[in-house]
Amino acid sequence: MADSGPATAQNNSAAAVALREVDVAFRLAQGGTYRAVERATLTVADGEFVAIVGPTGCGKSTLLNIAAGLLTPFAGQADIFGAPLSGLNRQAGYLFQADSLFPWKTALENVAIGPETAGVPASEARPRALEWLKRVGLGAFADRYPHMLSGGQRKRVGLAQVLIRDPKILLMDEPFGPLDAQTRQIMGNLLLDLWSADRKAVLFVTHDLEEAIALSDRVVIMSAGPSARIIGDWRVTLPRPRDISEVKLDPAFHELHRDIWHRLKAEVVKGYAQAEGAQ
Amino acid sequence: MSRVTLLTLQVLVAVISIALWYVLTTYPIFGKVLLPPFFFSNPVDVAKQVIAWFVSGVIWKHLWVTLSESILAFVLGSVGGVLVGFWFARQPRTAAVFDPYVKMVNALPRVVLAPIFTLWFGLGIWSKVALGITLVFFIVFFNVYQGVKEVSPTVLANARMLGMNERQLMRHVYWPSALSWMFSSLHTSVGFAVVGAVVGEYLGAAAGLGYLIQQAEGVFDVAGVFAGMFVLAAFVVIIDLLVSMVEKRLLVWRPAVGEGRP
Ligand SMILES: Nc1ncnc2c1ncn2[C@@H]1O[C@H](COP(=O)(O)OP(=O)(O)OP(=O)(O)O)[C@@H](O)[C@H]1O
Ligand SMILES: [Mg+2]
To answer: Which residues in chain A are contacts of B253 at CB distance < 8 A?
Structure first.
């Protein structure tokens, strides 16, 4: 991991995202605090695809919010391309876990809003938005409002909305969460296609370990909360370009899966037990 | 139920009610007219009165007065409600300071204000407009306030991540959300604008549907009272239809009730 003295800040080889010893505590409405994440250290190199896997409620979304600048850590630091992050992360595109499209805008308007916000005239932004909708397979749905789209279609509009701005860093929070297995594969391949065109740094949250391995360069495992930590970091060396359904047949894939799952299983069980106890 | 059946049944209800009204006010049953015409008039007289109003043309002036009072009350009350609603929602401190007074004024039955407005603004249309405004303002205000407050935090975070500044957030997030809440109460606020106008006229005016009803009542012209009520009802139904059309256009992005998606 690069040392982050002021001299080396801003250097070109700095990681796209570097979280250092990040602690997060939430103040609870009924008093007291909840220590969600403790001393989490995580780096994503420029052009690297990193997946975070962990039991539900461990703090995956929380880490993305910190990388996005939406949440300030209680202790520790977030560096973006070597510079400490303060305020929103302007270099990142964020695909949220929950529905985040503007319900009062059509699919096309939702995608065009990014460039329009940046001052691109509508006459230029709209055709580009349509281009992106076609790229995610929704060219025929440009005039639909979000409530007229399926869950998966909404996620794809969200993907286009983020990618049209060409962010250097892509934060994705369970983007394929509500989808069936087949659609997940199609979306996964689509994502890999788009990503390989211009390798952005990707931080990708999922609860599906197979998906994590199939897509990413590194898989990071978090422990169950409270005080969740990062407890494992595996490098995935499967060759690219990959096809998700094919890569899953690779013996190396299975070996890795077995390894990681062995470590993860204990945490998942612990996570459920804690959730039960909390009730 | 098909459209035709529905319409037939709806018309049937009207026909039966009017027929009952006619029979009970005209023919003695067991030697007694159950609804004395002096108090209940009868459909024929009422229809005659309505027709007479339209033939002579006197009704147009009254309709016009009530309509313009309603429109003015609606527009001014809505503008005020939107501005104050936005202001309070974005300035929680101001909202907290004014909160008890807002609740107090809103709890006040507006009819008691009518005499004061007549004193202040005279017998012309403005005292009625003022009464309508006090009704419309609070509905719009509460809805806009709610709309700005209840913007989904995820949508808001997304908007900020997409690079929106405060002004763009206002335009693309808060404003549409507030408007959607306001439009969803459009029927109520338009209805109250009419109520304000008619009640104001009833309590003291020189023209308008409320005035017409009040005049008829003053001389025990029950047919005139009923005729006024019918014209008023028709007037409200037509306005409500117009509102429905406007609403349908403005809220295309919202799922229709019962469409199955949240
Ligand atoms: N605003 C908050 N106040 C209090 N606790 C919070 C708040 N936000 C999150 N938490 C808690 O922090 C922990 C981590 O939440 P987070 O949303 O990051 O989980 P996650 O790993 O994304 O879970 P999932 O896989 O279910 O999406 C959870 O236990 C959650 O209850
Ligand atoms: Mg989450």
So the answer is: 103-106, 145-147
Per-residue pLDDT reduced to its tens digit, B32-85: 888 888 888 889 999 999 999 999 988 999 999 999 999 999 999 999 999 999
How large is the C-alpha radius of gyration of chain B? 23
**What confidence tens digit (pLDDT) does each residue in B192-237 have?**
999 999 999 998 888 999 999 999 999 989 999 999 999 999 999 9
In angstroms, the CA B23 to CA B212 distance is 27
> Do A103 and B160 count as a contact with CB atoms less than 8 A apart?
no
Q: Are A271 and A225 in contact (CB under 8 A)?
A: yes
User: B18-31: per-residue pLDDT in tens?
Assistant: 999 999 988 888 88
Q: Which of A98, A104, A161 sits opposite B253 (nearest CB)?
A: A104
CB-based contact B53:B227 (threshold 8 Å): yes
A1-91+200-279 is classed CATH 3.40.50.300: yes
Residue A102 has pLDDT above 80, yes or no: yes
Category of B246 on φ-ψ map: left (φ > 0), alpha (ψ -120 to 50) or beta: alpha
Q: Which residues line ligand 1 (CB under 6 A)?
A: A 26, 28, 34, 36, 54, 56-62, 97, 207, 225
Residue of A110, A147, A172 to mutate, interface with B, max B Cβ within 10 Å: A147
DSSP B256: P
Given a contact cutoff of 8 angstroms between Cβ atoms, the answer to whether A213 and A259 are in contact is no
Pocket residue to mutate for ligand 1, from A27, A28, A61, most atoms within 8 A of Cβ: A61
Backbone angles phi, psi at A79, to 5 degrees: -110, 135
Integer Cα distance of B172 and A102 in angstroms: 8
Are A103 and B154 contacting, i.e. CB atoms less than 8 angstroms apart? no
CB atoms within 10 A of CB A153: 18
Convert the pLDDT of each residue in A15-45 to its tens digit: 999 999 999 999 998 888 899 999 999 999 9
Q: What is the pTM of this model?
A: 0.82
- Give me the residue spans of the domains in chain A: 1-91+200-279
